[in-house]
Design a protein that fits this description.
Layout (H helix, E strand, L loop, with lengths): L1 H4 L1 H8 L4 H7 L1 H13 L2 H7 L2 E2 H8 L3 H13 L3 E4 L2 E4 L1 H6 L9 H14 L2 H7 L9 H9 L6 H14 L9 E6 L5 H9 L3 E7 L1 H13 L6 E5 L12 E7 L2 H4 L1 H14 E11 L1 E2 L7 H13 L6 E2 H10 L6 E6 L2 E7 L4
Parallel strand pairs: 4-5, 4-7, 5-6, 7-8, 9-10
Antiparallel strand pairs: 1-3, 2-3, 8-12, 11-12
Helix pairs in contact: 4-9, 6-7, 11-14, 12-13
Length: 347
């Protein structure tokens, strides 16, 4: 490309290497290649056997020459490997991008396309403070997340399993009453239900999202342990002193500070004494200087919500204490998510 052919000249002329800027200019191309390969099921086809671009194009019903070019691009991304005219999956693609595998992330890949229109309205949001949409509003959130919530299961569930292994709840003779707030696919509460045979779960989410979660937990064989409530958690009345474990996963950042604090106060009321509350969230450093992924997500919330933002551990710990919970601890179990754990005071 002309931009790249002039990179050396620009570096010599200015003393700065423009490579990083040029990489940013074309970063979208990597996403486009990955999305195209997922949509065309190329990784799933290659999982069956290694093959040439011509053979693959016949199976995928694509044009051979452009298929060859796409495979070359995927090779530069480390997603396929080439030997002569034959292509095979790289190990990472075999693990994460083959349909039907429990670790499949292709659905999440396609979901990224839903975020792109919002990102490209960032100049308008910076000028006006107005987002592209408001995923903090129930009707908007329901329409958006119902289409993608099951794709997130393979991302969340392994993290939830690690949390369950690290967090040992007090044994109870009676049922362990679990409340999963904004349950989505039910990944977090399902992990606890599998670990604790006496656990019964009340899972709350918006109607069409809850329908997806109900289907997911049914496939896990947990239907008789789950009661799904189709409602907006910010307005739903909650039973007094009823739950031993409350899970709030990746919800607060969409609600913003005021509604998150109000939710924590309501959850404190519905907990039994010594109940455990688990908040899974991506957190900013206390000085809000990072980490990089969190800063990117925080900016994404500016274009996708009217009040949403990321919080620090210190902020959430303070709000929990003010709501009647004990000293909170932070667990960095896996991935970008942190987990904040605390208990309801006994008096």
């Amino acid at each position: 490309m002309a931009q790249y052919s002039s990179a050396s000249y620009l570096a010599m002329d200015s003393g700065f290497d423009p490579g990083s800027i040029l990489d940013m200019n074309y970063a979208f191309a990597r996403t486009a290649m990955l999305v195209a390969a997922v949509r065309l099921r190329l990784f799933t086809h290659l999982a069956e056997r290694s093959m040439s671009a011509v053979t693959l194009s016949a199976i995928a019903e694509t044009e051979p020459d452009v298929t060859q070019r796409l495979l070359s691009g995927l090779r530069t991304l480390g997603l396929v490997e080439q030997e002569g005219d034959t292509y095979r999956l790289a190990p990472i693609a075999s693990h994460f991008l083959v349909e039907g595998k429990p670790s499949y992330l292709g659905g999440d890949t396609l979901a990224t396309m839903e975020y792109l229109p919002a990102w490209f309205t960032l100049p308008h949001t910076v000028r006006t403070g107005k987002p592209y949409r408001d995923l903090g509003q129930p009707s908007v959130a329901e329409a958006f997340f119902a289409a993608h919530v099951r794709d997130l299961f393979t991302v969340v569930y392994p993290i939830a399993k690690q949390l369950v292994g690290a967090l040992h709840l007090r044994e109870r003779e009676s049922c362990l009453q679990v409340l999963d707030v904004g349950a989505g696919s039910g990944a977090w509460s399902a992990a606890f239900a599998q670990q604790y045979p006496n656990a019964v779960v009340t899972a709350i989410d918006l109607p069409t999202v809850a329908a997806q979660g109900r289907q997911q937990t049914a496939e896990l064989g947990l239907s008789n342990r789950f009661t799904w409530v189709e409602a907006d958690i910010t307005t739903l009345p909650l039973d007094y002193a009823s739950y031993d474990l409350v899970i709030v996963a990746h919800l607060c950042r969409f609600l913003g500070e005021q509604r998150s604090r109000e939710l924590l106060e309501r959850l404190a009321v519905c907990c039994v004494p010594d109940a455990t509350i688990v908040i899974a969230e991506v957190l900013l450093l206390d000085d809000r200087s990072g980490p990089p992924l969190a800063l990117t997500l925080d900016l994404s919330l500016a274009v996708n919500t009217s009040q949403g933002r990321l919080f620090t551990f210190q902020e959430l710990r303070t709000w929990l204490h003010e709501s009647g919970f004990q000293e909170a601890i932070r667990l960095d179990v896996a991935g970008p998510s942190s987990v904040i754990v605390t208990q309801k005071g006994s008096s």
